[in-house]
Amino acid sequence: MASASNGFEAKLRDVGNRLLHPPSSADKLLPLLEKTESYLAKVEQQPCMSTKIALSTLMEALVADQILKHGNGDVKVSAVACISEITRITAPDAPYDDNQMTEIFRLTVASFENLSDMRSPCYSKAVSILKSVATYRWCLVMLDLECDRIIIDMFQLFLNVIRSDHPEEVFSAMETIMTLVMDESEYVSVELLSPILATVRKDNKNVSPICWRLGEKAITNCAAKLRPYLMEVVKCLGTRLSDYAPAVATICQNESNTRQYNLNVSGSRAHLVAKVFSEDVVCPREVGPSGEESLKSMICNDASQTKDTFIDYNSFDRLNQRSTRKKLLVETADKPVKITQKRSWKPYFLVNPEEGYDIVGLGGGKGLIQGK
Fold first, then answer.
1. Which of 97-106, 217-226, 309-318, 360-369 has the lowest mean pLDDT?
2. CA separation for the pair 202, 212 (Å, rounded)
3. CA–CA separation, 145 and 101 (whole Å)
4. Which residues contact 238 (CB under 8 A, 6 or more apart)?
5. What sign for the dihedral angle of Cα 187, 191, 197, 199?
6. Stretch 308-319: mean pLDDT, rounded?
7. Confidence grade of residue 254 (pLDDT, cut at 50, 70, 90)
8. Of 86, 105, 96, nearest to 143 (Cα)?
9. Contacting residues for 293 by C-beta, under 8 A, at least 6 apart
10. Nearest-CA neighbor of 78 among 19, 134, 153, 136?
């Protein structure tokens, strides 16, 4: 067993050294990358230390300019396919630094263009990369690195290349990625949501039924998250709810009912508080050390002057939301320092359903988010 392992690690070191000084010809480089991908596919997750050492040169070579910035598109796709295997091996840890991961994500999304042609020599690699992004949740790392433009391009590309003759695993992976991104985003921009809404316009249903289905699934999966945004985006686009799939109107109607309920509850609570202040509470004016009237005293006495005082509880909610944002701003003596709290990055097989997602099959036994 030890000798076999040593022999395999020697092969990893060999292809790594060859890729450090790759042939400039795509015809010679592509077979080398093909061999590299086949070797990487045999490496188990979280390998032993000797295998990690054997992989180090290979990992370095794959992100070098000679490969990632090669003039041949097929070379770039093959390199990304190798890197997707590296990501599987190192999960849940990202294999490269933030700048390198950002460039990898850009090339990853570019590789999805090959999904439009099932006869393309890179089609199968593009499918494999797509499934890897869904299974190992690369898209959440995209969010952490604030790759907004890359994410928007990815969504638009999905909606452009999806075909009715694609295997279900392609549709499911796209649905998974779109659902994850929107559900985990701090906010959903008009630029991200508008192309999805465009696909579920009623006049597009017969033009591209599969595209309509993908857009509708993404929206319904994220109904709770999108509810506050949909109506505003519809207004921004100058359209009407009746222009879209019934699911959009249903979600917006639920949002309208929720707002009215919150308004009624807030009004009732505020009226009750004002009544208690005016009838049951005597709140003397309190003066602080600086001679200014205390905030508590001012609120109590202002409330005692009327039984119809309205307290905007929504403003308190907004303040609480701001205080719990994932990005913290720490003031220092010189300048503010922004600290980004990165989410825990787990592949699907490490995510428990009780954490918020139900896991079903994706392709060859991989996980797929079904929805919260």
1. 360-369
2. 9
3. 9
4. none
5. negative
6. 38
7. low
8. 105
9. 285, 286, 287
10. 19
3-state secondary structure the chain: CHHHHHHHHHHHHHHHHHHHCCCCCHHHHHHHHHHHHHHHCCCCCCCCHHHHHHHHHHHHHHCCHHHHCCCCHHHHHHHHHHHHHHHHHHCCCCCCCHHHHHHHHHHHHHHHHHHHCCCCCCHHHHHHHHHHHHHCCHHHHHHHCCCHHHHHHHHHHHHHHCCCCCCHHHHHHHHHHHHHHHHHCCCCCHHHHHHHHHHCEHHHCCCCHHHHHHHHHHHHHCHHHHHHHHHHHHHHCCCCHHHECHHHHHHHHHHHHHHHHHHHHHHHHHHHHHHHHHHHCCCCCCECCCCCECHHHHHHHHHCCCCCCCCCHHHHHHHHHHHCCCEEEECCCCCCEEEECCCCCCCHHHCCHHHCCCEEEECCCEEEECCC
Q: Average the pLDDT over 195-218 and give the result.
A: 93
Whole-angstrom distance, CA of residue 194 vs CA of residue 234:
8
What's at 253, amino acid-wise? Q
Per the CB < 8 A criterion, the answer to whether 15 and 36 are in contact is yes
What are 132's two structure tokens? 């890897």
Q: Classify residue 316 by burial, with Cβ atoms within 10 Å: 0-12, 13-18, 19+.
A: exposed
Note whether 127 and 119 are within 8 A (CB).
no
pTM: 0.70
pLDDT digits (tens, 9 = 90+) for 267-290: 544 443 444 334 443 444 444 444
Task: Tell which wins on pLDDT, 4 or 372.
Answer: 4
213-234 b/e (C-beta count within 10 Å ≥ 16 → b): bbbbbbbbbbbebbbebbbebb
C-alpha–C-alpha distance, residues 323 and 202, integer Å: 40
